[in-house]
Amino acid sequence: MIFLSHLINGLSLGSIYAIIALGYTMVYGIAKMLNFAHGDVIMVGGYISYIVAHNLGWGAIGGILMSILVCTVLGVLIEGLAYKPLRGASSLAVLITAIGVSYFLQNAALLIWSPDPIVYPSLVDLPWMSFSIGDLKVSSVTTVTVLCCVLVMALLTLFINKTKMGKAMRAVSEDKGAAQLMGINVNGTISVTFAIGSGLAAIAGVLMCSAYPVLTPTTGSMPGIKAFTAAVFGGIGSIPGAMVGGILVGLLETLAKAYISTELSDAVVFAVLIIILLVKPAGLLGKQVTEKV
Amino acid sequence: MKKLTMKKATLQNFTNYGIILLFFLICGPLNDVGGFMTRSLEGQLVPICVYIVMAVSLNLVVGISGELSLGHAGFMSIGAFSGAVVAGVMQNAVQSEPLRLLVAVVVGAILAAVFGFLIGIPVLRLRGDYLAIVTLAFGEIIKNIFNCLYVAYDSNGLQVAFLSSSDIHLEDTGRFLINGPQGATGQDKTATFFAGILLVMFTLVVVQNLIRSRTGRAIMAIRDNRIAAEACGLNATRYKMIAFVIAAALAGAAGALYGQNFAAVTPSKFDFNTSILVLVFVVFGGMGNITGSIVAAALLTVLPELLREFQDYRMLIYAIVLILVMIATNNPLIRGWIEQAAAWVKKLFTKKSTEKEAGNDGI
């Protein structure tokens, strides 16, 4: 029974990682860049939802919607101001710029909201969503997180496969130049990708802060790195891969914490990642691209 | 001005030695006299040397060998903590402080090289972003392991424990050299600015001679076109490994020096952010450009100190400066403007004085 409860906790944590990893993987698939600032957008989402829901008193729904809105705008702004001028530059230059944006967000948050941790009251408090089987109690946050993850995944897959915008995204990720020649607005498509990724980051921020209720300006950075690992785990650029990777990382981390050691849980996750990459160098669901001369 | 007949490469090498010498000659006496530098700036002298070594060694991996490494701080921490253990053991046995520092740095470098080799075996099989994420993972693993490592020393010798310190039973005279998350504590601060300059000089000699050697050309050939280089009979993994291990050893040496500069160092000091910081130096200075790495490491280490008057805003300004410089140096449009402006200034300059500025172009 204890094992089952660890499993459910792991699933919930993994769902949060999966939602964050979706943002990483979409941006990577389309813009071919590692957006290191993604983790900090999560933190901004957390703060905005807290302020709107508690300081302004707009309630949970208002907080969540506002934070999604603000993060979406923020994502588009970041892309337009910092990454767009670097289109076509070396990927390292873009990476360093992303790190610069990450520093900027963290330090701006430090100035605006001070370094003192905020105790975040759960925004996802729906008693009817919690249930218990015998000794096993599942909180509403856990249920909502897992459901949210499944829903986001399903909607995103539909969006990518069925809509015109999704088709444009797939085309841009396949070949930017050819897509442009076919009349696709490449810059617009990339902006939409950032908007969706950042919106997802806001959802992840609300869910994460509801489950682990401490919020500081650096809250986002470690989950960001873990989710990035998760995206690579599943094969970066692949949307089902991000999902599988996120849930695997969450499960691994929770089980390692429970059965090996709290301090070493991160080391275990990273060690498994290294082993997987050695066996499958493109991740679990990534496609191996053969190099042409 | 004397006509320069040296080869461009040799000139570049000596420019770098010259910069370091100049840095030493200016900062050394200023430091001794006192009053010219603020206390915090004085404390930055050894870290500047350490970061220059880190940046130059990472440049060997990222710029020269072309593999993005996000775990360079891991090697630094191996050097720092192995150095701390060695220095702690010798604290009473060996009187001479420079000798203790030297042994610590050498041991740090050797251990980091050994780990660099072991980590390199799996890492160098991968390519591109996957290689980057695995180096990140190794860096985090090293940090986590040091967080759980306890090493103590008394008259019975070294005692090592993992996860919990309760297995260690010390005599009254014994003490912890590495104490889990608290790191290495109670060290003698044996690092000096002079030692830092020596290490930087040593690093430059090693890296610059490597780059100009047959091996160095092979490494760069593999970076530029791996398939063509392999077709010429170069063993890509072997040459990449040479660059990776040398960089790891230098980072270990830098870490040992860094560790000996403080009374206490914690494992969390050498986390992902430190690796990124060093990477920022390398990219900021220009990939594969050693002079750039030196200048960027020195400037960006001092910049937060210089911005101290802006107080809370300094890291914000640092971030904005970083973004703006990356955009300015990489956006084709803005780059064009800068080149135009440079050409205009040059024209203005040559009109006013007939003296030729041959040396300026070499850097």
What does this structure look like?
The complex is a heterodimer of chains A (293) and B (363). Chain A has 293 residues and is mainly alpha-helical. Chain A has a domain at 16-219. Helices cover 72% and strands 3% of the residues of chain A. In chain A, helix 2 (38-55) packs across helix 9, helix 3 crosses helix 8 (186-211) and helix 9 (221-234) packs parallel to helix 11 (265-279). The model of chain A has no long low-confidence stretch (mean pLDDT 87). By secondary structure, chain B is mainly α. Chain B has a single domain (8-314), classed as ABC transporter involved in vitamin B12 uptake, BtuC. Helices cover 69% and strands 5% of the residues of chain B. Chain B is built from 15 helices and 3 strands. In chain B, strands 2-1-3 form a 3-stranded antiparallel β-sheet. In chain B, 45% of the residues are buried. Classes of the chains: A mainly alpha (293), B mainly alpha (363). Chain A binds chain B through residues 28, 34, 82, 85-86, 88-90, 92-93, 95-97, 99-101, 103-104, 107-108, 110-111, 225, 228-229, 232, 236, 261, 263-264, 266-267, 270-271, 273-274, 277-278, 281-283, 291, 293, and chain B through 62, 68, 122, 125-127, 129-130, 132-134, 136-138, 140-141, 144-145, 147-148, 163, 181, 227, 272, 276, 279-280, 283-284, 287, 312-313, 315-316, 318-320, 322-323, 326-327, 329-334.
Tell me briefly what this model is.
The complex is a heterodimer of chains A (293) and B (363). Chain A has 293 residues and is mainly α.
List the helices and strands and how they pair.
The complex is a heterodimer of chains A (293) and B (363).
Chain A: H1 2-31, H2 38-55, H3 59-83, H4 91-113, E1 118-119, E2 131-133, E3 136-138, H5 140-162, H6 164-174, H7 176-181, H8 186-211, E4 214-215, H9 221-234, H10 239-259, H11 265-279
Antiparallel strand pairs in A: 1-4, 2-3
Chain B: H1 8-33, H2 39-43, H3 45-64, H4 72-90, H5 97-123, H6 128-147, E1 149-154, E2 157-162, E3 175-179, H7 193-211, H8 214-224, H9 226-231, H10 236-259, H11 272-285, H12 290-306, H13 314-330, H14 332-352, H15 358-362
Antiparallel strand pairs in B: 1-2, 1-3
Helix pairs in contact in B: 1-7, 3-7, 3-10, 3-11, 3-12, 4-5, 4-6, 4-10, 5-10, 7-10, 8-10, 11-12, 13-14
